[in-house]
Amino acid sequence: MKNRIILAAAAAVAASGMAISVVSAEPADDELVIDGEMTMVTRTAAPKDHPLDEVMSGWLFRTPETRALEADSFQNPGMLYVERGEEIWNTVEGEAGKSCASCHGDASETMAGVGTAYPKWDADAKRPINLELQINKCRENNLKAEAYKFDAAEQKALTTYIKHQSLGKPVQMDLSQGDLQSWWKKGEELYYTRTGQLNLSCASCHEENNGKYIRADHLSQGNVNGFPTYRLKQANMVSLHNRFRGCIRDTRAEYPAAFSDELMALEVYVTWRGTGLSVETPAVRQ
Amino acid sequence: MQVTRRQALGLSAGAAAFMAFAPAFADEAATEKMLKEFTGGKSPGSGKISLKAPEIAENGNTVPITVSVESDMTESSYVESVTLLADGNPNPGVATFHFSPMSGEASATTRMRLAGTQNVIAVAKMNDGSVFMDKKQVKVTIGGCGG
Amino acid sequence: MAAPKPRVKVPKSASAGEVITIKTLISHKMESGQRKDKQGNVIPRKIINKFTCEFEGKPVFSCDLEPAISANPYFEFNAKVMESGTFKFTWVDDSGDVYTHEQGIEVK
To answer: Which of A91, A180, B19, B103 is deepest in the core (most CB within 10 A)?
Structure first.
């Protein structure tokens, strides 16, 4: 099916004589204000040593209809998962007879801003730790409950809920922790490495061609400030590592396991690239 | 087949052109039949009803759509119902809204699935039995990373 | 899968005769009956097929839903309120399950 569409498209290209033209469209000149109250930073000056001058939220690359879904917290279907996450937060699980709330209390206070600073350095594991892994660590060590399997519905809902407590706050990682700097470097290498039958790197689309169309898709800068994000395609929450794998799959390459060293390094680097953008979780994307 | 990045990106223009000529997979007979059932065989007039839909939907899984009908919405004159059809889906039926004078305004918004580029049709039935129709083509982008 | 959970937005208060906007959302997969599982078997249809909104027992708005309605069905519609009272919202699942939510409004 996919091949047929590509061939048909190629035929149309040949017929129209636009073989290597690229359709370009500017990101929207629009402001994201949630519920008319909370103004989000969707454009900001890039941090030092960033290859781009300005970092932009993926929200600016979406259609007016998709943008409107995120701007109204009631219409945003991702908020259903925030509510589900709140239930999980307050549910006692595991042999210790505790819930998240038993230790952390009211998430709107204790978790405010927490989502802006991940991935962090995990001194025990001697590698970066993201929110999903932090939740699992807490479950195993403190709740004496089983770790969530990757992309379990509960994992996505709880991650979404915790990250949502930082809504509107700027992404700000601390790369001076532990050995994060070398993971950042490794992530940068991966970002610029071409993979797959289509021979694309992250940079091919999201650095060199953001704002242009790849087939029917308006390419963003690939910032991750809105993850987990509600994606219209799946009509569900999509985790960052799921999206990483989807992107790599689209280059027709084999993809690394979720939370593998490769994807953790990429998460460190790509999160840094969006420094200063507001946390939008749950963002709404195509 | 080797596809270079430039070629892959170039496909975007082709894909847009291709979509414009894509045949609708419409089952016209099924759409006609549902339309007739709703209108009772009357041919719908134009005006009064307006259908708001995106010209291009970023993803066919979630297409926002609003329908509104001009009416006083009083006991003596109101919109009874509005049916939504999509002529290129496996089944044309999408939803039927039922209003009452207590609705105040005959307007409703929902989100629908479109299997591809096709026509969305909205038909309103008034309490006096008259029917009005509006129709919009929605292009659904297929392919790319979100398709 | 957690039980479908409705969300409803109704203004807390309104003046008599005002036309208000109501928004509703419910978590539901809206399994269309068109998809197949990995073994190639059709996944049976399971959708919300009916939504109603009543005010003090009188119909305000309702909708018959087909599988072409998106997952997590969303509705936005209006109501004309003359006096204080309670809205009742009902979603009917193919499974026979019924999910309800009530919300009052103060009319001055």
So the answer is: B103
Catalytic residue among A100, A202, A205, A247: A247
- Contact, A252 vs A195, CB < 8 A? no
What pLDDT shows up at residue A217?
85
Q: Could you identify the residue written with the tokens 């509104």?
A: B68
Q: Is A2 within a domain?
A: no
Whether B147 and chain A come into contact, CB under 8 Å, resolves to yes
- The pLDDT tens digits for B35-81 are 999 999 999 998 999 999 999 998 899 999 999 999 999 999 999 99
Inspect the interface and report whether the beta carbons of C25 and A84 lie closer than 8 Å: no
| Count of structural domains within chain A | 2
- pTM of structure: 0.86
- Give B28's DSSP letter: H
In a domain, B14, yes or no: no
- Nearest CB partner across the interface for C25, out of A77, A84, A236: A77
Count of structural domains, chain B: 1
Active site residue A138: no
Query: Do the Cβ atoms of B109 and C76 come within 8 Å?
Result: yes
Question: Is there a domain that residue A32 lies in?
Answer: no
| Alpha carbons C18 and C14: distance in angstroms, whole number | 6
B21 band by pLDDT with thresholds 50, 70 and 90: very low
Q: Are residues A181 and A235 in the same domain?
A: yes
The SS3 assignment for A160 reads helix
Q: What percent of chain B has pLDDT over 70?
A: 78
Q: Is the pLDDT of residue B13 over 70?
A: no
pLDDT at B144: 63
Q: What is the largest CA-CA distance in chain C?
A: 59
Q: Per-residue pLDDT for A15 more than 90? A: no
Whole-angstrom distance, CA of residue C75 vs CA of residue B62? 13
Residue span of the structural domain in which A134 resides: 82-113+120-164
Which CATH code is given to the segment(s) C5-31+43-107? 2.60.40.10
- Give residue B40's domain range: 26-140
A59, A126, A165, A261 from A241: Cα distances, Å: 19, 20, 21, 12
CA distance A274 to A268: 10
pLDDT tens digits, residue range A64-104? 999 999 999 999 999 999 999 999 999 999 999 999 999 99
**Are B58 and A62 inside 8 Å of each other by CB?**
yes
pLDDT reported for residue B10:
42
CATH number at residue B123: 2.60.40.2470
Contacts A8 to B, Cβ<8 Å: 18
Domain membership flag for residue A86: yes
Can you tell me which residue has the tokens 């892994």? A133
Alpha carbon of C57: minimum distance to chain A alpha carbons (Å)? 26
Boundary (domain end) residue, out of A164, A192, A224: A164
**B4/A286 Cβ within 8 A:** no
